[in-house]
Design brief:
- The chain is mostly helical.
- Helix content is 62%, strand content 5%.
- It contains 15 helices and 5 strands.
- The chain has helices spanning 3-14, 21-45, 50-76, 83-97, 101-114, 131-136, 139-149, 151-164, 178-202, 204-228, 245-251, 260-265, 272-277, 286-291, 304-307; strands at 129-130, 255-257, 301-303, 313-317, 322-325.
């Protein structure tokens, strides 16, 4: 893709960054009410069959993803026009997503500023080695990397560890600001108070039976979404001297074409190339942006079934300029 084409796409996307307060409030209402209803249904289902409870945990986990996307937009300052409304909403939702608002906001901004840059890896992304770097590792480090990149470990184990443990610690970014550290610590206090009260009121066994599967499923789905948005065979990586933010946004981010109901749960975050081109577009305007520029629908398009093939990709081959599996390295 030529630079002038990328520039044209970026200019187009900028036209859709204006928030709509009515739609934003409606999105909150249609997230909060179904989530509360699902939690209530899970609680009452415990008296009948835990299989019903587990089945209900799937849409409940989907609602957590939807909450997270709203918090994500608030962090970008795109959900509401008001900074105060964005920050207040984002902080309240963080109690549900277990994600410290200000800390994640800063880490995610670094992700956008460094995405697909081989010389600035490690900011809010999936750890990715080049073929040469992997081959140069001693045996135990190669084994550790293989374990880390195992699809099951990364999604189901990694999701739980990330949301329950890693996000409780204010040290995953070097030299975090006082605001970032405070965000983590204050959320930890809020989690103890809010979930402690819920556990005491409804019983700790019931609390674990309801929330454990939600955390597992939402954590796995969240990690998978983030993975497939940048980890696909024909993705884009470049070194510092060649790296360009807009080029990285278009070529290094996927268009994850999901069925309508999954787009609803995920807040259209599958249109990730558009989001990286203009992070100030609220999630509820991403489809509108793509519809007005049909060529956006043909860039790095992945269907759900096609995306499953990405699970085995683990290394960036600088010679062929594509992501490859361990077997191909």
């Amino acid at each position: 893709m030529q630079p002038n084409q990328i520039k044209d796409l970026a200019a187009h996307c900028e036209q859709f960054r204006t928030p709509n307060t009515g739609i934003a409030i409606g999105q909150i209402v249609t997230t909060v009410i179904p989530f509360i209803a699902l939690i209530g249904a899970m609680y009452f289902s415990l008296d009948y069959s835990y299989w019903i409870t587990l089945a209900l945990s799937l849409p409940a986990a989907g609602m957590i993803i939807r909450f997270f996307i709203i918090q994500h937009d608030c962090g970008h300052g795109s959900f509401f026009a008001s900074k105060t409304a964005n920050d207040l909403t984002g902080r309240l939702i963080s109690i549900v997503t277990l994600t410290p608002y200000a800390y994640w906001q800063r880490a995610h901004a670094l992700h956008h500023a460094t995405s697909s840059n081989l010389d600035r890896r490690g900011f809010g992304d999936i750890d990715t080695l080049t073929v040469a770097e992997y081959k140069a590792l001693p045996l135990m480090k190669r084994i550790n990397y293989r374990i880390y990149r195992n699809p099951f470990i990364m999604t189901f184990v990694g999701g739980v560890v990330h949301f329950l443990i890693i996000q409780r610690l204010p040290f995953t970014v070097q030299r975090p600001s006082r605001k970032m550290t405070s965000s983590v610590l204050m959320l930890n206090v809020a989690i103890i108070v809010v979930y402690g009260a819920i556990g005491a009121l409804f019983g700790w066994v019931n609390f674990v039976l309801i929330f454990a599967p939600i955390v597992v499923f939402s954590g796995a789905a969240g990690v998978w979404l983030f993975y497939v948005q940048h980890q696909f065979e024909e993705t884009h990586w470049s070194r510092d001297g060649e790296w360009d933010r807009k080029t990285a946004a278009v070529l290094g981010s996927s268009y994850y074409q999901l069925p309508g109901i999954l787009n609803w749960f995920t807040g259209n975050i599958g249109l990730h190339h558009i989001h990286h081109l203009c992070s100030h577009i609220p999630n509820y305007r991403l489809q509108e942006c793509m519809a007005a520029k049909p060529e956006l629908a043909s860039i790095n398009r992945l269907t759900f079934w096609e995306s499953l093939k990405c699970a085995h990709l683990a290394l960036w081959d600088e010679d062929s300029r594509r992501l490859v599996s361990f077997a191909q390295a």
